[in-house]
Amino acid sequence: MIFRYSIIIPLAYNRFDINSSNPDSESRFKLDDRITESFDISGSHDGYVFKDTLTISLFTTTGQVKGREMASVLNDSVDPYFTCEIDGLLVDDEKYARQYAEKIVNKLCKELSLLIIKHNSNRHLYQPRVEPNWSRAEWNRDEYLPYKEARFNSLKKDNGDAVELYIEDRVYMCDSVYRLATTSISKSEIDIKGWLGEADDDLQFLINEYYSALGIEKVKSKFFHLFAMIEFCEQKYADHNGAKTYLTATEVENIIKTIDKEISPEKKKNILSGVKKCLLQMNDTGRAQKLLNILKWMNIKKYSRFGKDTVIDKKMIEGIIKVRNKSFHGTVESEEACKTYRDAVEKLLYINEKIIEYVRQLKHMESDSG
């Protein structure tokens, strides 16, 4: 038997300032209208081939939360909060419906979180992360009628027609210091079909790390996730760091041959491999400058805070790298040290947002050219 599943899932986001138990009183987010996208789906079961339409909707739930139990579940979200509705999953077992729904919702939460943080001028204190509340998801299941009818009439095949739906919505965000204000985000920025497409491994890694750095994670944990993205770019795009090695491969081999004559056989393997690697990596450019060159290649040259642009220079990058280097020493961290983490996280949230945008564009260009 084929069943048709529909699922409604609350998508909560944290409302607390980072490193604080106080709710943020400035920023709120909402969709002022329902966003719905349709997808043609097909499959087969027991020799019956079916075609139908799966619809996925995002909308805002507002007003009083009914029931003490539901209010408790959403106590770390805000009013309004987001809701995702998936209608038309055709599977023969509930476990498959859950698997498909989780895959869809997790992708939407990550992309929706990126969209929110992009327009969040208060990110130095407030870094919401959208997450599904599966414990309060509503599941509905019905027998899939076309399949049921086909079982009794094998000659009759009803493939159905795809229903065309349109996006008619905008996203709004509340952001202010002393009062609640609404900032409109263009509906063109919401791309459900694009968000649910097969993501490149590199892009997926960056999105996952960025998403993990949002929400109420400890600030040091946030920093590690964000700096992992920086280290990925340093390796992936090393050809654009502008560095020139001091020695050619031939020169390094000559040095290794000379050293080889002076070392006992039992020590050669580890020593020579380490020396060779070090010599090949030696270059005329420091880490901060190399990273700065990569960011310039990506056209990431400015850091924006409260609408004011600041040039991303070598000094800023050196400060971030210094925080990273200190984080590997087992010392008790003072309040001043925590502040340096917060400052670095704020800068990296902006820089890494732009890195994701650049890599996404790069992957699209590669896909189009291929």
Euclidean distance between termini CA atoms: 41 Å
**Total domains:** 3
What percent of residues are in strands?
15-25%
Residue windows where pLDDT falls under 50 for at least 5 positions: 64-78, 155-183
Could you say which overall geometry the principal axes of the C-alpha atoms support?
globular
Query: Radius of gyration, rounded?
Result: 26 Å
Which whole number gives the mean pLDDT?
79
Number of DSSP strand runs = 11
Please describe the biggest sheet, giving its number of strands, its sense, and whether it closes into a barrel: 6 strands, antiparallel
Structural class label: alpha+beta
Helix and strand pattern: EEEEHEHEEHEEHHHHHHEEHH
Number of helices: 11
Percent in helix: 40-55%
Describe the structure.
44% of the residues lie in helices and 21% in strands. It has 370 residues and is α+β, with helices and mostly antiparallel strands. It folds into three domains: 3-197, no CATH class; 198-244 and 284-370, no CATH class; 246-282. Helix 5 runs antiparallel to helix 11. The two termini are 41 Å apart.
